[in-house]
């Protein structure tokens, strides 16, 4: 008993029975049974029910359910046909990828037909790319912290000298490590190492000996070990991020699996699409639309933000240095003449002047601003691409990113069937007549609302549309289009044309047109294979 499995597209969910093409008792099913019959037994219609949301996660769940339905038919030894419209075709494509991953050849699948499907070509998202931003922030933080640690623990380092000047105990330790004997150098000698005036002797302070210092962890060791611990935790955190992202990878879209699906199912796929299908053409442009419109403005804003942050960092560093320098020179903070005192202390201070440190920091900040501009271009581009994909394609399934929108699935090289001239013109005329009817209805409703002077009487745009103003939604309303599908299916061994269809005037030329198409597609596939 052959089974037909119709799969509706986005926003087309409904009850099991109704007038939509995929529902039981629909005009499509009645026309189908009128034109095609089974060689053995009766035809069975088993529509796939899914929520119809514009969501890759929903499409993937529907694909898993479709594969279960196919496996049940395989276990019963029943021949079956899959027919999907719009993203119903995407569900078929995903289901066959899942079947390929499970190494299920599905021998009873006679034909997989997709109608007006905008196939989303997917790629596994790079785990490294996903964690690029947090890893970059962690590396920058560790580098900055490492520079501070090196400056504080290296003899002669900037922070080392400031700490030695601010903390006599720190200076005791540092001086004793530089001394040759067990007893520390006198205060005047210790402070003379730094080129500073000696601090007054502190009453009650017991001098530390060399043996005392080495029996306890030094301040240098505490700082260095703490930094090593932070680096270790950061490395473990990065590894965990990487492993978590790898776990999200979609293994069904690997190169090996796509190649396997091409070998197993491409010959049984038949795609049908109008040359001006709005979904295929519109979505293929929507991926880059956000980048083209928003990238220049957002990139300038991001660069400005980076510049302001670096300027703020420079100011904070400068103020921090002034505070340390003022404390080292025993200049009272918040005094009225603090600026003049600091400037006088800077000019009188021996050794490297503050100008060198400020120049180095300023050059570093300027370099970071220039680098951040380049990074912002790449990061903003990636964010806008992801935003466009989530907005228009609803790629909410983890581990995926879209590479393009195509009229064929990832696992097929051959293009879909272009509609015959007469059929394409028929669909165009039908769509135009529906559009004119919609405009007329909309005008009438608007006039009625204006005359009533009631804002609540304004018509609902979506309710007035008949849903057939677009070519993408009008396929199955054309009897000639339905006959095209029937002509394709009678080539299958379990199906045959009824006497009604075999005597139909369109039967012969549609069948001949499909044969010519398939012959040409086979030649093109052979040429493509030989070229590879």
What's a concise summary of this model?
This protein is of the alpha/beta class and 532 residues long. The chain is 61% helix and 9% strand. The protein is elongated, with a radius of gyration of 37 Å.
Please tell me about this protein's structure.
- The chain has 532 residues and is α/β, with parallel strands linked by helices.
- It folds into three domains: 3-124 and 250-277 and 410-419 and 481-531, Rossmann fold; 127-247, no CATH class; 290-398, no CATH class.
- The protein is built from 20 helices and ten strands.
- It has helices at residues 27-35, 56-75, 87-101, 127-130, 132-153, 158-166, 168-178, 187-193, 210-215, 219-247, 255-265, 278-328, 338-348, 354-393, 421-452, 461-464, 471-474, 479-489, 499-502, 505-531; strands at residues 3-7, 36-38, 44-45, 80-85, 109-115, 119-124, 269-273, 400-406, 417-418, 495-497.
- The strands form three sheets. It has a six-stranded parallel sheet with strand order 3-1-4-5-7-9, with helices on one face. A two-stranded antiparallel sheet has the order 2-10. The chain has a two-stranded antiparallel sheet with strand order 6-8.
- Strand 4, helix 3 (87-101) and strand 5 (109-115) form a beta-alpha-beta unit.
- The relative contact order is 0.12.
Question: What key attributes describe this structure?
Answer:
alpha/beta, Rossmann fold, 6-stranded parallel β-sheet, 61% helix, 9% strand
SSE order and pairing:
Elements: E1 3-7, H1 27-35, E2 36-38, E3 44-45, H2 56-75, E4 80-85, H3 87-101, E5 109-115, E6 119-124, H4 127-130, H5 132-153, H6 158-166, H7 168-178, H8 187-193, H9 210-215, H10 219-247, H11 255-265, E7 269-273, H12 278-328, H13 338-348, H14 354-393, E8 400-406, E9 417-418, H15 421-452, H16 461-464, H17 471-474, H18 479-489, E10 495-497, H19 499-502, H20 505-531
Parallel strand pairs: 1-3, 1-4, 4-5, 5-7, 7-9
Antiparallel strand pairs: 2-10, 6-8
Helix pairs in contact: 1-18, 2-3, 3-11, 5-6, 5-10, 6-7, 6-12, 7-8, 12-14, 18-20
